[in-house]
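Q: Structure for this?
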Amino acid sequence: MSDVLLAAPSRRSLSLHDAKVRGIIYQVLLAVSLLALAVGIAVQTASNMRARGIPLSFGFWNEAAGFDINQTLIPYDTLSTYGQAFWVGVVNTLYVSLLGIVLATVLGFVVGIARLSPNWIVSKVAASYVEIIRNIPLLLQLLFWYNAVLKTLPAPRASIELPGGIYLNNRGLIIPEIQLYAGAGTVGLAFLAATIFCVAFWSYARRAQNRTGKQLPVLWVGLAALIGLPLIVFLLVGSPVSFVTPDLKGFNYRGGHQLYPEFAALLIGLSVYTASFIAEIVRSGIQAVPKGQTEAAHALGLAPGKTLRLVIVPQALRIIIPPLTSQYLNLTKNSSLAVFIGYPDLVQIFAGTVLNQTGAAVQVMAITLSVYLAISLVTSMAMNAFNQRFAIVER
Amino acid sequence: MSDQSLHPPLVNNSLLPPMAPPCGIRPSPVTWIRKNLFSTPFSGVLTICFTVLAAWLLHQFVSFAVLDAVWAGGQEECRANPDGACWPFIVEKFDYLRYGAYPVSERWRVDLTLAIGAVLIVWLLWRRAPRRNVAALLFFVAYPVVAFVLLRGVASLDLPVIDTVLWGGLLITLLMSIVGIVFSLPLGVLLALGRRSELPFVKAVCVTFIEVVRGVPFITVLFMANFMMPLFVPDYLTPDRLLRPLIAIALFSSAYMAEVVRAGLQAIPKGQYEAAKALGVSYFTMMRLIILPQALTIVIPGIVSTFIGLFKDTTLVAIVGIADFLRAVETARVDPNWAGPTISSTGYLFAGLVYWIFCFGMSRYSQSMERALARGHKS
């Protein structure tokens, strides 16, 4: 009897009653069916593409694109290749996303903190903002900003004139162009030097406070250095900057920088929409810090401002940052809605125009998806690194 | 020992009369205003600024939508009025916005389908309704078949087949969201179970699918479904133009649903799993009878939020040429017969109201559910 019991575990049973065996069988079945599906799709796709004369290679990458893009941050013209068009799209997507992230964060934090205000009307206005904005589809908001607000502005000839040579019309916002002359570089260098000085002074002040307990006026010294030094240099080299004011020629303005309505609508829509989600994250993050923390800080004699800065915010940030990052990713992904209002982002240029012109659907979609995946992968890696750095260290 | 009557008893043997409520617990309006609106000078300034802002916005909205709006009449009245909304435009386009080009004589089928769906959803979501498992079975299994038969039609049942090109408007929006939830929830549960599985290959497949889908924008998934699905299959199997975005939306939201369900699975105490295993219950029975009922209940708010996201995302199907509600508004708005100064704004206002009512209602439900669940856990 005891012999049997002892022997049983050492025997390798290969029956279906063994969970391990069943597990292996399930996995083999899944692997085989996935492989069959993949091979089937690959074979079918290759034959379909050949039958329809769709290119199977990435050869189109170096062919001339032949279409123009009105908003580019990197050199591009009609003679450029599809590859260059791709990079224009990537840069434009990143550009609008980064600006949107900055604006949405600022607006979101303001609204989120306003929702917690002891002032009844401030918190109600902030709450209405959140409840209205986040319950309306982003696309509807984009179309509204573009078609009902920016496109109904007057034509260039009847532009709204704002002070400082700025014009607003249905082709966008036209601002004076900044032209730099010799010596402007020196001002830049002065600014760089001031920045380095600030960092050095901040770390010195920190060490001094740790050693002696005395606080140095970091903020005021920093501001003085950052504004004062470049200003003095600027005046010394004789104001090496001039503004070219735009002027009306024919039906449009020449000279000056143009902020296109497509870009503006996308930027406003993305920031306003995402800010409503960020506001909720900020509110719940701050509320999640136990009240005892505030009370303890007050009991220790910290002023309200310092309590917020040194006790509440660092703890709230630990809760806020992860969902905030996913909102940043959402904003980046949502920037693909640009295709509806014609802002040349990655999807509009590459998955739209290039795909239609070359017909290379599989290759184009694979590249587009990889770009977005790479962005979210890099962001989540940075996120994890941040979490590890700031995780609560249990002692 | 001692005479007890010398001391008053330490225990009351009769009830004390109720005390008068403490005074000042309900502040007077003046106290309330001073405390909540003018507690500091800065707060007072904010109150004035925000009151002016709120009043101005409200006034703008009310005067555009109600006071200055055109309520009766036709195109001429709307063209003559540049200040207010043009409601006759919405009235005329109302049927188009609801059904698209679905044949007028067959529109009762749409109404019936949506009514059945509404009844089942209420049954499913109302917490005190009896036999909610029957509702779930009907909604997730029987309803898709009934909806397909009714909407598309089967010639042998005396229901003429309506080509999907004619479908449009709110019908498409609701269809997309209902198909999304009906298919993405079961798929999401499977993916979540796969992600928590101990089998490494199953886990890897599920994690890859979930993370890839969540990493890309919905538009690119729609593009893929539209341009690449026809390449993946032989010609005679090419999915219908409406089916392709439906597949895309189901797969896309299943990845998000999986993450919601996973959160629920993680929230179930380990003891539940261990107790089930100790009783010798098999994996699937354990999931079906013990883990999933608890996990799915606590994530209902999360499911509803995902559904709100899905509902808002259905607007994007316009990019592959499907005339959903927002697309219908866009088409109606540029109708040259109705060209007027406020047609666009009226269209967007109406669309915004419709979407807002749906989304806000759902988010309210999810919040009340959250509160009810929190109560349940505390008691």
